[in-house]
Each structure stands twice: as structure tokens, then as C-alpha cells.
Amino acid sequence: MGHKLKITGWISIGVMAGALTTVSLQTVARGTLTPLPLEELQQLAAVFGIVKSNYVEPVDDKKLITDAIAGMVAGLDPHSVYLDKKALKDFNEGTTGKFVGVGIEISQEDGLIKVVSPIEGSPAFRAGIKPNDLIIKINDTLVKGLTLSEGVKRMRGEPNTKVLLTILRKSENRTFPVPIVREEIRTQSVRSKVIEPGYAWIRLSQFQERTVEDFARKMEEIYKQEPHLKGLVLDLRNDPGGYLDAAVAISAAFLPANVTVVSANGQLAESKFTYKAAPEYYQRRSGGDPLKHLTDVTKGALKSVPLVVLVNEGSASASEIVAGALQDHKRAKLMGNQTFGKGSVQTAVCLDSGFRMDNCPTAALKLTTSRYYTPSGNSIQAKGIVPDVMVDETAEGNLFAALRTREADLEKHLSNGQSDEKKSSVSDKVREDALKKLEDELKKPLAERKLPEYGSDTDFQLIQAIHQLKGQTVLASKTLVERPEEKKEE
């Protein structure tokens, strides 16, 4: 593999419920220098001068330049973007899975921040914060009225600084303060459990730095509990992507050695590559294979255990690479809903001379440089991967899928490059009906809501996946159909 040391990627999608994302490669795509368009640059300089001298109030030079760069890149496609210092910090936190804070997974309930779960070993975990606790105050600021992101921002900070959370614990009918010292947190991207004897579930919520190691550890725990596993569900629902080499590693855990996992094609030599199911394509700089111990413990059983992969509209980028590879090699049955459709590769470039992306101090560029392809040569860009069996989210149907954004819904999305584009859109009426259903659901007590937590006893799609593994009847959707690529409006 001639360029294996140059390209180590991450993938993410970026436009869904908070974390948006891409496939990015930590190398600079260097081509030959092209002549500068002097006439257009003179026009740009003229606009700069007019704004500086005529705008209603003084404008900082740096702001004008950075806004011009940001506009130039953003006009290309939804995933090409200029990263200033703050955006760069958020970008690094999202892909490494590390941040400084208290260590809780949260949601919102009745205008308050609800603790879904404290991260094991985190300051919040050690302080005794429990699932379902409600945070009503952060330091002296009442949570009521804050957005979830504003609450997160107030709980994060510098290492070794203090934050005071006021907790409402309904189960004990009391309110009490909990002082916590912030520290670096590693998010948990892998969850698992044995559903019933012989059948297990493992969920990847994102492909981060430690996802492969955590996957291997969780699978070892499953096999110690169930050494003769009869079936496994790999859950990639709402997984927005992450590191490319992590996606290749997870695919390699299930596939025969050296088969193709993913390929990419673009203008430059650096943007053309093929990754295969072999350690040299995914092992980190340490040179070690994070899957070797797992293979030894399971005696290679993961290569043949019956496998179902769950996907939905929120499965994007890296998770689509895994799903596409397992589907094309007929290694797994895909179930759920058609995936997001992000099939483009972004190269991440630090604009500070001499710095690497993982240590970039002030500014960077993410630029779309390739489309990627499944092993059979299919581009999923703006189309997604169609499951082998379409399954609704709930027994009542696919209630809220119309509200979810897909790649084809994004303005200036990159075309598929293969198939004829067809116009297909979700009507405003369908979206309005889905929104009303969602609002009605949120008014109900948590236990009565129709969208259960993934992995719970009432997870309809997971139940159907277990039925599939057992050879039992699967309640396939009667209404879901393949959604073609949207026609771009020029």
C-alpha cells in the first residue's frame, strides 16, 4: 500500500442533531501550482477596499479575510468548511471523543437538563450523579430557558476548575448541590449487552479514536459470557461517522482477510485509494493490531457468526462504509431504513505552516477531495445504502423519519456521479404531520413514548433483528420504499 502512511482518515457527517460530519484524511493534498486568476483577485481586492472605506463602521481586516475564505469554501458543498480557532477546537473534540467537562450523557426534559447516564469513571460518576437526575442550576445560572448546547458550554471548561451543579432527584424528592472538578473526559462510543442466551447486541454511536479498542473489549466480554454466540446485532443507527481507519477495522473484524472495504477517487493521486480488511490499513502509529487479542479470544468466530446490521437515516459516512462493505460481501443482513448518503471524502489541512492537523493552533481547511465507493463500486453519495429488509422504527410505523435531514436534502450537495438523478422530496404535509406526532409524543410521560432507547426491551427494530437471526417472522415495513437521489437545483 504505497500511501498507507500518508492517509489516516476520519469520517463524519455533519448536519444532524448536533454533530455534523465528514470523511477526512490527515494529509495535505498537494497538486501542481495553478496560475492565479489576477483579474478576479483584483476585483476581490477592490471589494475589500470599498468595504474598508465605506462600511457604516470600521471592520477588522482579519474578519474580512477569514469571512471571504469561509464563504469561498462553503460555496462548494455542505462538508467543505473553513475552521477558525473555536471551530477547530470543536472539530478535534468531536473526532477524538475527548473534552474537558464533568462526564455525563444528557438530554432535555421539561426545559431542564436530564442525565441519561454518567460516563463510567468520570467526575460526575464519582460524585454520585445518577441516570434521570435533573440539573436545575449550573453555578448561579438557572437551566430553565437555556438550550442544551448552552448548558453543555457552561458545564465544560478548563481542567481542574470547579462547577457547581444543583440536582433535582425526583426518586428521592430532594434538591441538592454537587460540586465537581472538571477533567478530560473520554466519551463512550461503544455499548453492548447479551439480549438473551446466544444472542448479543453491540452499538457504535460514533467512530472515534478509541472505538476499535472499545469494540474489541466489549466483544471479548460478550464471548466470555456467551462463548457459543449464535447471532449478533451490530447497531449503527444514528452513527454520524468518524475515523476512516476505525470503520475499516470494524469491517475487517467480520470480513475475510484482504477483501476490499472501501475505495475513493478524486483529482489528485492522494485522493485515490483502496482500503482492505488487513491490519496495515487500520492499525495506528503504534503499529499494533487492536483486533488481534479479540481474534485470539474468539478463535476467529466473528468472521462467521450470523450478523444483522441496523441502520437508519442517521447512519452516515463511516457507518455507511461498514454497512456497505458487509452488505456487498454478503456477510450481514442489513435492516432498518435507507441511510444518510454521505459518500464524500474531506481532506483536513492545517493552515498554520509546519503544524499537523492533530496539533493545529489557529486555523484549518476541510475540503472535499474524493467520492468513496463500496466494494462493488457503488457510490452512496446523496443516495445512501438501501437495507435488505426495510423495518419501521416502531410497531406503529416510521413515525418521525420525515423530519430527519439526509445528504440529498442539503443545499449544494455533491451529486452521486453515477446514477441519473430523480426528483424526490418529502412533502410539507408529511413533515407537518410528523412534527405534530413528535410534539404529542414529547407531552407524554417518558415510559409511554413510542420511541424507546436503543437496546431496550421495547426497541422494535432490534426485536426484528433478533427474529431475523433466529429465522423467525420479521415484521417488515409495508410503507417504506427506496428514496432515490434528489435532483439538485442549479
From TrEMBL:
Enzyme Commission number: 3.4.21.102
CDD domains: cpPDZ_CPP-like, Peptidase_S41_CPP
Superkingdom field: Bacteria
InterPro entries: ClpP/crotonase-like_dom_sf, CtpA/B_N, PDZ, PDZ_sf, Peptidase_S41A, Tail-specific_protease
Alphabetized GO MF terms: serine-type endopeptidase activity
One Pfam short name: CtpB_N-like
Residues covered by the PDZ domain: 88-170
Name of the top EC class for this enzyme: hydrolase
Record keywords, A-Z: Hydrolase, Membrane, Protease, Serine protease, Transmembrane, Transmembrane helix
Transmembrane segments: 7-29
A single GO BP: proteolysis
GO CC terms in record: outer membrane-bounded periplasmic space
Assigned protein family: Belongs to the peptidase S41A family.
Annotated protein name in UniProt: Carboxyl-terminal protease
Native source species: Albidiferax ferrireducens (strain ATCC BAA-621 / DSM 15236 / T118) (Rhodoferax ferrireducens)
